[in-house]
Amino acid sequence: MKLQLSEADLAFRDEVRAFLREHLSEAVRRRSRIGMHPPHDGDRMAWNRVLAARGWAAPLWPREYGGTGWTHLQHHIFEMECRLAHAPELRWQGIKLIGPVIYTFGTPQQKARWLPPTLTGEYTWAQGFSEPGAGSDLASLKTTAVLEGDQWVVSGQKLWTTEGQFSNMGFFLVRTAQTERPHRGLSMLVLDMASPGVTVRTIPMINGDHSTCEVFLDRVRVPQDQLIGEPGTGWDQARFLLSNERTSSADLYKAFADLERIRDIASREQRRGRPLIADPSFARQLAALEAEVRALEWSVLRVMAQAPSDHPIGAAASVLKVRGSELQQRLTELAGDALGPRALREYTREQAFADGGGDALWHDAVAGVSADQMYLRAVTIFGGAKEVQKNIISKLAFGL
User: Fold this and answer.
1) Residue-wise pLDDT tens digits, 41-100
2) What is the reported pTM?
3) How far apart (Å, rounded) are the C-alpha atoms in residues 150 and 169?
4) By the 8 A CB rule, do 79 and 253 touch?
5) CA-CA distance, 83 to 30, in Å (whole number)?
6) CATH classification (class only), 125-237
7) Which residues are catalytic?
8) What is the separation of C-alpha 18 from the centre of its chain, rounded to a whole number of angstroms?
9) The CATH number of 249-398 is which of 3.30.420.10, 3.50.50.60, 1.20.140.10, 1.20.120.1730?
10) Would you say 226 and 191 are in contact if contact means Cβ atoms under 8 Å apart?
11) So where are the chain's domains?
12) Measured distance CA(391)–CA(318) in Å, rounded
């Protein structure tokens, strides 16, 4: 099965490709190809400004808030071409998560205040959902927000906050009331990460990176008007946000880029005097994974277009999250297998970005492969563990 593009879609694809050729240097492409979390103040922020200037920073936002007005297929083409060209990935917490929440649930004042600087990258966002003892089970979270006069006073701890050390704004799920049904006492609150009482500590990761953080909130005072929606409606906003996150967690575009990376590695690596790509056993493994990635592509397109379905969008998003996260792990495992002993070399993020490789032993496809493989051991957990997603699917799709 192959996606057929119309003449108009092919012309749009050519426009995107020309734009990428003009604005992406080879050095930026190489650093993005590595796959480790990039430095905050370098390529990614510059790329955000380039896209914002073109009006392409948030393709799926409504045009009235700075979006493009593209069709879902055009958005798919754009995301695919950016990933295959190794363009830096923008901070998804703002563009894909809190941005849609703000323009869907926020007041006119909140939209005017927070959306424009999110588009330009001036606001970089931390997501404060998980806690110690409340990861996939967000209804049991303990962080509280108590209204004192015209301010919310927030106390608690958040965990696994991706790139919180680089964020100047945060959106936090907090408990504003004790209710019989725990999730009905939750609210979504926006706060300035520079506020007194906010402490961010990075967490060392197994791949040598420091991409996640824990956030401590010690009586942080937040203006009352920074609550999104009415108190107690945070669960509805969180479910909306998590459906977007889980659809994104399929990471379809990374999967296609990973396939290309594996082909690159397998064309360089030798087994018994010939390129690995010519080995029938390896070729079968690669072909089987490509078939599954292309099947995932059709599923993502259906969900993006919200085609008529017997099942609710929340169940479909969980299916994509489960399937996509499993494929990410299998793709990185195959890349590591293709490298063989060369996959054992450890790269820090700084070394990976600085070392262009290029010699016979450490060619430039080596850096970042093992780090990516180790990091993605967690992909079936973060954003909602696989086991929890299966429970959601069984409940929403089949009424079990």
Assistant:
1) 688 899 999 999 999 999 989 999 999 999 888 999 999 999 999 999 888 899 999 999
2) 0.86
3) 20
4) yes
5) 12
6) mainly beta
7) 245
8) 25
9) 1.20.140.10
10) yes
11) 7-90, 125-237, 249-398
12) 9
